[in-house]
């Protein structure tokens, strides 16, 4: 679509594109310069823009399941294997090792590369979403995401903004690290200490998530959009690990760590799955309601597809996995033998395809309705479905 036709499609709104004032991701700046994205009916009559952190950027999209084989294609799970070496940029492009925006990221899986722009960045906090004029900060060499959105929305019609943010404000990565150390080193539980840490931060984090939504709204208003011209979808986080009763490895011994890549005590598994993730979903749902955003509850999305679940399996040379039987999240890796540490416990390639279906299903529904998205154990992304939330 040319610049003139994009303007016509947006109802003739007069906008300016101030690309020179921003440091944009390479993929985004190239897309805007070309004016190549086509309007996509499922995203409200315009393109979709995904913003926020690693759970929507596509972190771990390199991996189609998990395998404890450390050479070659890792039993077919490593999408960066080219037959003789590994090239992470084939999945993450120029953002490999940084924002890790994968070719299978949620919005791209939902609407295709012509119907979506992904500006989310692994490790981002709410401050990385705010406009610079509102206290936003440059992160990994890129302008605040709301400022990037302003440039995109000025050039092309945006029909949907998908936002995943707040987890890094709460220190999710630190909590996971602490729980792993308690299992492998200290032989103690992490849940009480980490729950206290979350409780001490969550009010501030949710206030900032609300501000992030308001920042998106302010950008869109400044670019001439009415609230009815687009929708904001705030999503929660899925649990990449199962309950203890659904973990296929025994609690003691080394199989959870060395084979399964899920080194957590049973009590900590149950805390994360049934207390932490639901708590965050509840609070994010409240924020969405208070700031006029649609809510997508993902707390049960990976049920039956988690790392170490009894309902799925690792890939082996004899039995390569697929989206129906394989794990949908990346297991723990030290980065010494497979990929990078930052990919651990994020939705992988299969998970991203499922999340893409979640988003496309939500986009096809009325903007005022909230939904929970779930998957079906033993099925691929075709088994993903929505449940309306009251």
Automatic annotation (TrEMBL):
Residues annotated as domain SGNH hydrolase-type esterase: 109-349
Residues of the signal peptide: 1-41
Disulfide bonds: 179-190
InterPro entries the UniProt entry points to: SEST-like, SGNH_hydro, SGNH_hydro_sf
Keywords: Disulfide bond, Hydrolase, Signal
GO BP annotations, alphabetical order: triglyceride catabolic process
Superkingdom classification of source: Bacteria
Keyword Transit peptide attached: no
GO molecular function, one term: triacylglycerol lipase activity
Active-site residues, Swiss-Prot/TrEMBL: 54, 346
Stated name of the protein: GDSL-like lipase/acylhydrolase family protein
Naturally occurring in which organism (per UniProt): Kitasatospora viridis
């Amino acid at each position: 679509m040319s610049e003139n036709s994009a303007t016509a499609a947006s109802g003739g709104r007069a906008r300016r594109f101030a690309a020179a004032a921003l440091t944009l991701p390479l993929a985004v700046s190239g897309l805007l310069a070309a004016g190549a994205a086509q309007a996509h009916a499922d995203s409200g009559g315009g393109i979709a823009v995904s913003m926020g952190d690693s759970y929507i950027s596509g972190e771990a999209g390199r991996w189609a399941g998990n395998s404890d084989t450390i050479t070659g294609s890792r039993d077919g799970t490593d999408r960066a294997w080219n037959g003789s070496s590994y090239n992470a940029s084939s999945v993450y492009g120029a953002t490999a090792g940084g924002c890790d925006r994968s070719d299978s990221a949620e919005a791209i899986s939902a609407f295709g590369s012509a119907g979506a722009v992904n500006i989310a960045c692994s490790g981002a906090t709410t401050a990385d979403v705010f406009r610079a004029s509102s206290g936003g900060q440059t992160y990994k060499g890129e302008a605040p995401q709301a400022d990037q959105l302003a440039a995109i929305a000025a050039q092309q019609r945006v029909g949907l903004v998908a936002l995943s943010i707040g987890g890094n404000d709460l220190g999710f990565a630190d909590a996971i690290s602490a729980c792993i150390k308690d299992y492998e080193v200290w032989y103690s539980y992490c849940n009480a200490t980490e729950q206290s840490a979350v409780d001490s931060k969550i009010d501030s984090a949710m206030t900032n998530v609300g501000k992030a939504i308001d920042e998106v709204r302010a950008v869109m208003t400044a670019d001439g959009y009415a609230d009815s011209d687009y929708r904001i979808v705030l999503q929660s986080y899925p649990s990449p690990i199962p309950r203890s009763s659904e973990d296929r490895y025994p609690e003691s011994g080394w199989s959870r760590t060395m084979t399964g890549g899920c080194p957590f005590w049973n009590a900590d598994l149950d805390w994360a799955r049934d207390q932490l993730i639901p708590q965050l979903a509840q609070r994010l749902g409240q924020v969405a309601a208070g700031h006029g955003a649609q809510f997508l509850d993902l707390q049960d999305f990976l049920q039956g597809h988690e790392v170490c679940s009894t309902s799925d399996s690792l890939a082996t040379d004899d039995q390569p996995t697929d989206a129906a039987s394989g794990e949908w999240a990346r297991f723990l890796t030290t980065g010494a033998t497979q990929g990078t540490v930052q990919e651990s416990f994020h939705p992988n390639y299969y998970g991203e395809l499922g999340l893409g279906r979640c988003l496309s299903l939500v986009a096809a529904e009325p903007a005022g309705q909230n939904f929970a998205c779930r998957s079906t154990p033993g099925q691929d992304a075709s088994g993903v479905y929505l449940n309306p939330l009251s």
